[in-house]
Amino acid sequence: MDSRELRNALGRFATGVTVVTCRGEDRPHGLTVNSFTSVSLDPPLVLVSIDRRANAVPYLTGRPFAVNILAAGQEDLAWHFAGRAQPDLEVAWVEGRLCPRLAHSLAYFECSPWRAYDGGDHVLFLGRVEEFAYGQGEPLVFYASRMTRLVPPGPQPER
Ligand SMILES: Cc1cc2nc3c(=O)[nH]c(=O)nc-3n(C[C@H](O)[C@H](O)[C@H](O)COP(=O)(O)O)c2cc1C
Fold it and tell me: For 82-128, what is each residue's pLDDT tens digit?
């Protein structure tokens, strides 16, 4: 199977963009993640799928983490935490109840560790949501390897 083509096909699934944040060695750590999924309401569980080679894996194993949903206009944060450091970017961190998180996200979920499962070359981390909040606004969207925005719908046909 051609894995580049597989990635291209998977990229036809439009997603939001999150930054998963946690405590690193001696400072907060974050990585950009679009594999975020809601799993369960009772108990309240969410999932992120993380590459086994990511620096974050040991920081997430058995440890709390936060999922920060990015708003439109936060592309610089998304690229920064995807390994393309933005030299002029000042990241505004908040010390949450469980772990560090980002200020000014569209929504956040602070999670305690629930389970980790084998996901091939990724690890599936499930977290139990302990704190969350959300605001109003437009989300950042990832589609076909690009950051984009929701297109406001035109006039809708009457149903
Ligand atoms: C839009 C976007 C979505 C991404 N989603 C994921 C993901 O779901 N899981 C993952 O492991 N890496 C994902 N990445 C790649 C990581 O952000 C990147 O490899 C990061 O540098 C890993 O950080 P770390 O190794 O310091 O923990 C994504 C990158 C981008 C730009």
Answer: 999 989 999 999 999 999 999 999 999 999 999 999 999 999 999 99
Interatomic CA distance for residues 149 and 16, integer angstroms: 9
Pocket test for ligand 1, best of 15, 33, 80, 149 (most atoms within 8 A of CB): 33
Q: Of all atoms in ligand 1, which is nearest to the CA of residue 78?
A: 31
Residue whose token pair is 């002029």: 88
Q: pLDDT tens-digit profile of 145-159? A: 999 999 877 887 777
Cα separation, 58 vs 54, whole angstroms: 9
Query: Is 83 a pocket residue for ligand 1 (Cβ < 6 Å)?
Result: yes
Q: Would you list the domain boundaries of the chain?
A: 24-141
> Can you tell me which residue has the tokens 């933005």?
86
CA-83 nearest atom, ligand 1: 21
Q: Which two tokens stand for residue 51?
A: 């590459």
Output the pTM of the full model. Answer: 0.95
The CATH number given to 24-141 is 2.30.110.10
Cα torsion angle, 24, 56, 138, 144, sign: positive
